[in-house]
Structures are given as structure tokens and as C-alpha cells.
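Exercise: predict the fold of this chain.
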Amino acid sequence: MSRQVRWKQSPRKRAAALLLIACGVVLTAGVCRHFEDFEAELKPAADEEVLRERMLHWTPVRTLGRAFEEQEWRIYDMIHRRAHVTAVDPEIVVLGIDEGSMTPEATAEPEEIAKSRALQLMAGGWPWSREVYALALERLLAAGARTVVIDLMLPAPSATAPEGDAAFKAALDKYKGRVLIAADFTTAANGGVALALPWDGFVPSGWPADERIGMVSVWPHADGVIRTARFFHSETNEPERALPSFAAAVMRLQGRPEIIPLDAPDHFFRFGPRDAYRPWSLMDIFVPALWERNFGGGGFFKGKTVFIGPTAQSLQDFKETPVGTILGVQLHAHALGALKGGSFVRMAPLSVRAGLLVALVFAAWLLVVVLRRPLWVMFVLIAGIALGFVAQWWLFDAASLIVPFAVPVLGWALCGFTGLTFDYVLERKSKEALRRRIGRFHSPDMVAAILADPDDYERSLAGAKRTIALLFSDVRGFTTMSESMPPEEMIAQLTEYLDRMVEVVFKHNGAIDKFIGDAVMAAWGRLRNAQDEALLKRDALDAVATAIEMLEALGELNAAWKQRGMEALHIGIGIHQGEAIVGELGSGKSEFTAIGDTVNSASRLESATKQYGVDLIISDVVRERVKDAFVCRTADLVKVKGKTKPMEVFTVQGRAGTCDAAEIATFENGVRLFREGKFAEALVEFEKARAGGLDDGLTTLYRERCDELIAAPPESWDGVWTMTKK
């Protein structure tokens, strides 16, 4: 079987190969992302110790899965911030213990402090006597507030103001059923969970818990962002020892326990706007003028739920949420607002999320299999990525459903673009096979050479050593052109181009060794035994003249193609002269060609034109033989890949007498300084050359090299640049 046939896969084999790619994407993305989810469903952890032990295994999979999960949450937060939010509940008010409340003497008038017991206690320094909270309760509840929530931990009696504890205890008892104080679940020294209750001198600590206790604990996700509310929690998982959150406790006190969802431990909810429940200063309720102006003499609080909590920067009560960083006391207000409004969102079941990944991956597989146009496939893939995130947004906004699309969309993109890459590799192999097929045909100049000296040709077929000049040219961007043009247009344009190039080669006594797809390999001297210097110089001059005229002819073709609405072509040309083995190679339909280091060097010089930003690169051997007829300019002293001895290479500016010698002299002086390791001085010369009009890719390359070497001087420098690419 020929290599050409080997790379032409049937549609069925291609579809099967792409299916294997799709299955690999599903397994990789699905297992990594949902490994812990499946593990939790199949083998629930009995306690924290089992969970910690489990986390020590399959660490790479867990790490990648959590990276996927973190990206999903980032997208979720972005959508949450931009989707519709829970409306601000006008019956929820936040009073903050801010900097002004902690230093009332800085803002309140002395006579106001003198008339207010609460302001006097506040001015005494933080932490305050608990009598301040008792006075706040009296002030607010007497004004008609429905419930007051104090978001402060009070786990022990006051060491300095026991009379304040008594006053607070009296207020709690007086307004029982209208006041809540805080309890908190904390991490114990052994890694377990501990419960911090209010001092039992305020409320009883027995079970069931006193109705005046609500927990302030929150449970963020692994990235530290709080997205859910937990309305009940027990450190022992015993229902009778479960504490309600502030939001749940408020609803129980207000006679609406039925609205508290009990179907899951944690509930995603919509936050309100980031600036919702902006806190008023607690101090304001004790300043008569502000009490009247801001709160209408107390009427503002009638029927409302009032949260009192820390808002001062020094108290550091900040929480990360999807809508940004907010205060802890505001978080409880957001949770209560969502609970009262039933503003919850549901996470799609694991089966739906895993199924979505499978569906999108195999949709991408079907797309690549059926739609055989790469540009259209890329367009649909990119559109699918955008559509996935729009769908997630719509489901969150309109259906209150969380369907993370990040991993399914990643699977869609991976499968699609991997399939395109697979097709690209197959196309490249097919193109190489086509190049070999075209290169089998002898060119017309070979017929003339054979007729002129048939005996020499017969000897050459068996193999002979010749000093030949070789020209390699190649079209830039041929792959992109072949994918975007109809086949018949592509073949027509390429044929027109090759016909013109062959015409130029023949005009200057050259022979077409072969076509390699869009590449042309031309040779001079393959069939000549005589190798005197005059003939070698003639070969070099013909090769360079051919290259110059090929570039000129391509310019004419591009101008004509532009008028016909066709794309322009760009080529690079490399020329080298040296010894090579010529002969007929191949089995079956053989070809007369040249092999050896000279061929490889010429090919690499053609490839080097891309790196140097020029159209033509010649070796130092060629330059020595053509320098009187053509203006040559140094390109580099380079050590090409696979070679140990450096080669000096040049570009050709044009025919003698057609170029500005002063600009080239400045550039050459810069090259000399560069090779001597005087990079700063060389950079000055290159800048002069650029300013004088020699502003091309080669000058830019040397300027960039100088900048790099000035910034990081080499330990040793011999002026040789190593080429790492062919």
C-alpha cells in the first residue's frame, strides 16, 4: 500500500477516530469534574475524619476537578452580578456599629452626650457595656420595631460592667419573642465543630434552644465565597439540637415558619444589590436631632426587622459573596430578604450536569464529522461557546436554575478543536502525498539535456557527484489558502503560478528538479561533468537572477489576481551551491533528483527567509560568485539545526547599481559591531539604517536581538546565532 493511500481514510474510519477523541474528552473532563460528586453519592462520608482521609487519594484528579469547579463558580458569580437580583425588602433595616458609634465624642455635641446615657456608655470605649444594647432595644421596640437582631457574640459575662449585663438580661426578658442574639459554630482545636452559645446568664443554654438564639455561622464554598444559606444546623446532626439561622429564627418569631425550606441543608439564594441594606449608624438613634430627622421620631422602625451588627473597619466583619464584599450583618439581611421573598435558585441534578457534558461533546463530534468545512466548524464551535454561557445566564435569570456550562462547553470546544486538528493532520499528510505525485514528472529541460548527452545521462542515472546550484521556493500560507478556496480555484491559481515560475527557471537555464506541492526545487549543473569555476559562477548568477525575476513575476501575478478578486501569494527563496549526489531514485515510477547536504542546506535557507523577514536568502558560497552583479547584504552567521559549522548567509537587495550603498554600509557596520559583541554600538548603527530607509524585517530582527543581548549579556559570544528551527 502506498503512503498516499494510507493517509486517505474512509469516512467511516474518520468518524470512528473522531468518536474515540470524543470519548476521551468525556472521560477526562467528566471524571475530573464530577469525581467527588459521584464519590459523595456512592460512598457518603460518615464524618470529617473519613473525608480528610479520602482527600489524600486521587489528588491530581481532585485538584483538576476543583479547578474546573472554581471556574464554574466564577462564571456563576459573574452571571449573578448581572442577572436580576432580589428586591430590597423595605421592612429590613441595618444599624451598624461604625467608627462614629465607637467614638461618639468625635461627632456628637458634648451636650448631646451629657443628656444620653447610651452615648456616655459608648464614649467609654469598646467593648461597650451591654447596657448599650438594652437601651437600643428599648428605643427600637418602643418605636414599634417588630424584631431586633443583635449580630454580636456575647459568650461570657462582662468583666468590667456587670450592671450592664443585668440591664441587657432585663431587656431580653421584657421583649422575649421580639429579640434575637447570636450563637456560632466554630472549628475546635481537634478539627471538629464546637458550638459557642450566648452566656447562660442572658438566655438558658439547655435544649431545645431558647427561641431568642439564632446562629450567625455561614458556610462558604472552597473559594471562600458565600453563595448559600443554611437555615438550620446541628454540630451532632441531631434535629433536636439544631439551631436556626438569624433569617429562620426571625421568621419563626414572626409566625411564618412554613416559608423556611427544609428539603436540603443548604439553599442557593439570590442576593439583593450590593449596596442593599446600607447600614445606618447605631449612634444616630440616641441623638435626638438625628432620631427625628432620619427616623421620624421612631416611626421609621415601625413593623420592621432591625439588625444591629459591626460595620467598623476595625471589627473586620466582611464576607465574600457573588455580588462582592459585604458586611456580615448585611449578609443576614440579604438572607432574610431572600427567605421572605422565596428568592431561591436550584442547582441542576448531577445527572443533568453530567448528561449535558456528554451531549455537548457528542454534538461537537457530530459537527466535525458532518460539516467538512473547517472555517464553518470553527464558527459554530465559537458560537456554541457563547451560546452556552447565554443559556446558563437565561436559566439562572428566568428559571432560577443553576446549570454550570463551563465544563460542558470546555468538552464541546476540546472535542471540536481536537477533531479539527485531527482533520488538519490528515490533510497535511494528503498534501505531502500529492506533492510526491507531482514531483514524479520530468521537466522539459530534462528532455533537452538527455538529447544533448545521452551517455552522460545514463551514467547519471546510476548516481554521480556534481557541484550544483539549488534554488528552493515555497508559497507562504498555502494551507490557509487551500482550506478557504474552492478546489478548482485553488488548482487554477497554483497552476498559473507554477507555470510562470517554471518559465522563469527555464529562461535562466535551470532545471525543475521537482514540485513539492506549492514548493519548487530548481537546479543548475546536474548533468554537467565539467566543473570549472567559470561554469560554477555562471550557475550561481543564473540561480540568483532566477530568484530576482521570480519575485518580480510574482508581483505582476499578484497585481493581476487582485483585479480578478483573488488572494495574493507570497514566497520565500533559498539558494545554495555545493556537492550533491544526482541520480534516479524510487521504485516503479522513479525520478531523477539530487540528494545530499547541499539540498538540505538550500531547503533550510528557504525556510530561514521567514525568520529574517526577507524573500531571498543565499549562502556565502553563492554570494562570493555573484557579488559583482548583485548587491548582497549580510543576513547572519548562523549555525543551522543539524550542523556544527556556522554558515554565513546573505540576502540580495537587487541588481548592482540599483540600491543605496550608504544605507547598506551602515547596516553592515552594525553587523560587524554585533558580531564583536558591541551590542549597544550595533544598535545605534541599526537605528541609523532604519532611519535612512532600510526599515525591514532584517533590520528589526537585529534591533530586537541587540535589545535582548543588552538586557541579558551572554557569558560567551562568538557572533554565531543558532537556528533552532528548520
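Check your answer against the key: Confidence is low (pLDDT under 50) at residues 1-8, 434-444.
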